[in-house]
Amino acid sequence: MLRTSDSTDRAVTPATEEHPEPPADRAPARLLAQRGLFFGPSALVPEDLYSVVERGTARRERDRVVLAPGSRVSTNTYFGRFHATYWQRWTDIGEVEVSAVATGTGRLRLMASDTNKVWRIVAAVDVQQGEATPVRLVGPVDRFVDGGGMWIEIATETGELTVSDVRWTVTGARPVPPTDIAITTHNRVDDCLNTLQALARDPEALERIRTVHVADQGSDPLESRERFGEIAAALGERLRYVRQPNLGGAGGFARGMLHSTEGAPDRHADVLLMDDDVLLEPELLIRLTSFSAATRHPMIVGAQMLNLLHPGHLHISAEYADPEQLLMGLKVPGALREAYLLGVDERQLPINQERRVDTEYNGWWSCLIPAAVIREVGYPLPLFLQWDDIEYGYRARAQGFPTVSLPGAGVWHADFGWKDGDEWQRYFTVRNGLIMAALHSGFSIRRITKRLAELIAHQLVAMQYGMTATLLQAVEDFLEGPDVLRDGSASALARVREIRKAYPETVMHPMSEAGGEFHDRPVIRAANEPGSETLTFLKRVAYQIGGRSAYRTGSVPAGDAHWWHVSLFERAIVTDMSEQGFRVRNRDKQVAFQLARRSALLLRRFVREAPAVAARYRTELPRHSSRENWERLYGVEN
Predict the structure, then answer these.
(1) What is the tens place of the pLDDT at every residue in 411-470?
(2) Between the ranges 315-329, 409-423, 503-517, where is the mean pLDDT highest?
(3) Among residues 379, 373, 363, 377, which one has the least CA distance to residue 258?
(4) How far is the C-alpha of 428 from the C-alpha of 316, rounded, in Å?
(5) Helix (H) or strand (E) segment spanning residue 401
(6) Domain 31-171, classified CATH 3.10.28.10, yes or no
(7) Checking CA distances to 281, which of 11, 364, 602, 629 falls within 20 to 30 Å?
(8) What angle in degrees, to the nearest 10, is found between the helix axes of 425-440 and 589-624?
(9) Would you say 431 and 391 are in contact if contact means Cβ atoms under 8 Å apart?
(10) Among residues of the chain, what percentage have pLDDT more than 90?
(11) Are the beta carbons of 83 and 407 closer than 8 angstroms?
């Protein structure tokens, strides 16, 4: 390991140039696109995401499966499929070859599906009393433009069969470029160490990686743990460890990107950005780097997110954003969202992303960005967190570099649905969303102002006064212009946390403090959604101004904490979305009036000043996303 505290030193291994043609004596005969795995990296994830025992019995292990007589195993699963539609759309491979080692008696089939999930047999081979028999199946990748994939089916009748070392390979037009992993971490020591350990335990996947760059921004450093030394020894010279001030996810990832693209272009590496708190499937290193190496032109290749608390669920397979509405993570039509990958559809066929759906960006829970893209697009904006990955994806897209979210390349990440919206992070959601709108939308003042007014109004009647103050501070800081980013948003973090201290309902109380709050208060569920939100809102305002309420007090489950329900209470004990505690909201007409007056004045200012401010953000984008700006923030000499 090399530990660096004040530099962005590169590893010494030279990188290849942007998509070059390799010399004839160096070109790999085949490119390993993915390994055939029958079991996950941990017993914490369902093995049926990898392979399914459809008949009989089988013993599934990581890289092999043993079938009893009269059994059938299929890899028509999330991790088991070769997602041919994405390979045909974005690469020039003509076929895929599946190789394996079979011992015993049975049959292997290479299967394929159409856009509507109708299966067909592409190739088949029988093994008769084989002893470590090499098996080879080849399928053309020529009928998958709109959708479809491939998988293997293994079956036995009277004998037992063991299949191992399954490998999906394609023609290797060029070698896989050197790739650096960039991990940013902040006081999630055990999670980050688990991720590093998972990398170290898969040597074949790790061979794709030049360096593992860790930017530690926390007050509880990784290096303080004994386990860190063991992992560092296992990773050896691949590991680069950097301590730096907390500049958020953007600051951590940008440090890794600077590291991977330092020096002359022929020494650059692609960079695989990765969150610290994921449950890692090391196989994604192979799948992302192989796909990226095979694409016709450089593009961003993202891994998909599966939910950590509910590991059988896919968060989303393709998404887009609407910054003028401050909305991210919107589902592209035809994509899967919160899909149960172990379930079946109405035809009793597996749930998977059969039809190809193209995304507009990919989250940085795990995302591969080629060095060629970084050279053209630049580095992230110092937004601290929220929207930094989205902004970069749209900026790259505008410069001709699309993004693909590759099915079958996934990591487990903390479920978004279990994060409460009333947190300090909401400041960055709003401020950075406005910056995103300024840079990558028509910046409709009417549409944005209407959205801001709606958010403020709903928060006020729902007694979320601290949330309202958070939003107002975000808008005010946006109007300060690009200089608000000058310190990497570090001061904004401290400022918003201080602001929120004045509002008691922003505090989540643990259940140990519940006392009679839960025992003595009735749980009051929400009724149906209002037929007219406008009329319902006006009615709630009238009631609150008149000091009336439907309920003096009561408990509200997290899933029922809609503004139109909580606004019926004088005092509401609301379960936090994390299900780890509760918040207490008390009606305060004086505070509500003060915030409402401040909101009206601010929105008038926004209408007047925002167009010119948006133009300044567009002008300053190259400077704030430059290498020089990030080196200044890190205190690194050129």
Answers:
(1) 999 998 888 788 899 999 999 999 999 999 999 999 999 999 999 999 999 999 999 999
(2) 315-329
(3) 379
(4) 22
(5) none
(6) no
(7) 11
(8) 50
(9) no
(10) 84
(11) yes
Separation between Cα atoms, residue 561 and residue 584, nearest integer Å: 12
Cα gap 174→94, rounded to integer Å? 15
Q: What is the pLDDT of residues 597-629, one digit of tens each?
A: 999 999 999 999 999 999 999 999 999 999 999
The residue to which tokens 């059938």 are assigned: 72
Q: Which amino acid is at 199?
A: L
Q: Determine the distance from the C-alpha atom of residue 328 to the mean position of all C-alpha atoms in its chain, rounded to a whole number.
A: 12
Side-chain half-sphere CA neighbours of 202 within 13 A: 23
* HEC string for 547-587: CCCCEEEEEECHHHCCHHHHCCEEEEEEECCCCCEEEEEEC
Question: What would the two tokens of residue 63 be?
Answer: 């890289």
**In whole angstroms, what is the distance from residue 111 CA to residue 88 CA?**
16
pLDDT of residue 236 exceeding 60, the answer is yes
Q: Taking the domains of the chain in order of start, what are their residue ranges? A: 2-18+175-418, 31-171, 425-591
pLDDT digits (tens, 9 = 90+) for 194-223: 999 999 999 999 999 999 999 999 999 999
Distance CA 450, CA 471 (A): 14
pLDDT of residue 521: 75
Cα(1)–Cα(163) distance, integer angstroms = 38
Residue 175 near residue 127, CB atoms below 8 Å: no
- The CATH architecture annotation of domain 2-18+175-418 reads Alpha-Beta Complex (3.90)
Strand order in the sheet with 551-556: 509-510, 581-586, 569-575, 551-556
Q: Within 10 A of 613 (CB to CB), how many other CB atoms are there? A: 18
Handedness of CA 354, 358, 362, 367 (dihedral sign): positive
Return the exposure string of 79-97: e unless at least 16 CB atoms fall within 10 Å of the residue's CB, then b.
Answer: bbbbbbbbbbbbbebeebb
